[in-house]
Design brief:
It comes from Mytilus coruscus (Sea mussel). This is Histidine N-acetyltransferase C-terminal domain-containing protein. This protein has 329 residues and is α+β, with helices and mostly antiparallel strands. It has 2 domains: 109 residues, Gcn5-related N-acetyltransferase (GNAT) (Aminopeptidase, 3-Layer(aba) Sandwich), CATH 3.40.630; 172 residues, Aminopeptidase. It is 28% helix and 35% strand. It is built from 11 helices and 16 strands. Strands 1, 2, 3, 4, 5, 6, 7, 8, 11, 12, 13, 14, 15 and 16 form a 14-stranded mixed beta sheet that branches. The chain has a two-stranded antiparallel sheet with strand order 9-10. Helix 9 links the parallel strand 13 and strand 14. Helix 5 packs across helix 9. It is globular, with a radius of gyration of 20 Å. The two termini are 28 Å apart. The structure holds coenzyme A. Coenzyme A binds next to strand 5, helix 3, strand 6 and helix 4.
Length: 329
């Protein structure tokens, strides 16, 4: 293991070492918490680990207690260096509540000039709302999501027969076009009135440079009617998880029949991958959207509604000043 940063902290008479995580640490990181115990089996880290560590804006650290990887922390810097997003954090049960995530967070943000620290989580997680109530974090945005399930074989068969659609307006959007959309005021007022776009659980401000971070090797962006009030922009990312192939689809804009074309294109992209077993589509949308409309569209593709790890996402933010003031350490 390459240790490019390390420090020792004495805590509860135990020696805690903070190490920079590299791709060589994959097995040790995955062993911290069994994937079945995170996000109801839809943990993305085992599949995303190498991709995330290859990204220039990502840093990951582990707290090593008595020689064992006890806690993992990953940060992703977005918004032209202004915001640090924390994601995929986990602590082995044996070491929970000792402040290990706190140590790793302090290690990541010290001596940096981030304005904000943001995180998204499931709104059913009590700890998140406790932090909001206590004034430690501010709620920025909430989105509804619904999970839909089918099998890879059924999805392929439906898409190749009854569900076949010829898109008339929906088309793929590349990184450069996405960058332009993120800075087009008219488009943004309609699609992202809160000033944020959440993709694959990561909140981004509406800044051109975020386009290259949003579009990873797993991302497909589809747009339709982008010049008028019926515009739709959707993002999809897929992840191999213990529970099956999960595809996160975020929907922004006008909810109408054209959305079926978007879903069709995202699902076609998905079945071009090798799929066996279950397919779980998690569709994210604005809170005022009629979720039954989305559910009925999904039914056309043979996807049945199910509940896996909640139905609402919450994005919260704090500042380094507030974080350091409130930190228990
Ligand atoms: C969340 C988790 C990483 C906390 O690890 P930890 O080392 O016990 O954390 P610490 O001891 O440093 O601090 C505990 C803090 O985490 C908060 N916390 C606990 N569960 C949380 C959760 N699911 N999401 C966000 N915060 C959580 C606690 O409220 C506490 O906050 P406080 O200091 O304001 O009281 C750990 O409980 C875990 O592995 N959970 C399962 C994976 C998961 O859901 N991760 C969230 C990724 S967004």
């Amino acid at each position: 293991m390459t240790i490019s940063l390390s420090s020792n902290v004495e805590m509860s008479n135990r020696s805690i070492k903070v190490v920079r995580v590299t791709k060589d640490d994959y097995e040790k990181v995955c062993a911290i918490t069994p994937p079945g115990q995170i996000y109801s089996g839809t943990d993305y880290l085992p599949d995303y680990f190498h991709m995330l560590l290859d990204m220039p804006n990502v840093e990951a650290y582990a707290a090593v207690v008595d020689g064992k990887f006890a806690s993992f922390f990953l940060s992703s810097v977005v918004d032209n260096g202004r915001t640090v997003i924390t994601r995929a954090g986990r602590t082995n049960k044996e070491y929970a509540g000792m402040g290990l995530q706190d140590i790793l967070m302090r290690n990541t943000i010290k001596n940096r000039n981030y304005d904000k620290i943001a995180v998204t989580g499931g709104a059913h997680v009590k700890a998140i709302f406790d932090q909001i109530k206590a004034g430690k974090r501010e709620k920025i945005l909430m989105m509804e999501f619904r999970s839909y399930i089918t099998s890879g074989d059924q999805l392929k068969s439906i898409l190749n027969t009854t569900g076949n659609i010829t898109p008339t307006s929906a088309k793929p959007i590349d990184e450069s076009e996405l960058g332009d959309l993120l800075t087009n005021q008219q488009v943004c007022c309609h699609l992202f009135p809160e000033g944020r776009v959440i993709v694959d659980w990561v909140p981004y401000r509406l800044i051109k440079s975020n386009a290259s971070l949003i579009k990873t090797i797993r991302t497909t962006v589809i747009g339709s009617n982008l010049k008028n009030g019926t515009r739709i922009l959707t993002f999809a990312n897929y992840i191999n998880t213990l529970a099956g192939l999960v595809c996160n689809i975020e929907v922004y804009g006008y909810i109408g029949e054209t959305l079926a074309e978007h879903l069709y294109l995202h699902l076609r992209e998905l079945i071009s991958k090798v799929i066996s077993g279950k397919v779980i589509i998690r569709c994210f949308f604005r809170q005022e959207t009629n979720s039954n409309f989305i559910t009925n569209l999904m039914k056309r593709f043979g996807l049945d509604i199910t509940e896996i790890w909640g139905t609402t996402l919450v994005c919260t933010e704090t500042s380094p000043e507030i974080y350091f003031r409130e930190s228990k350490l």
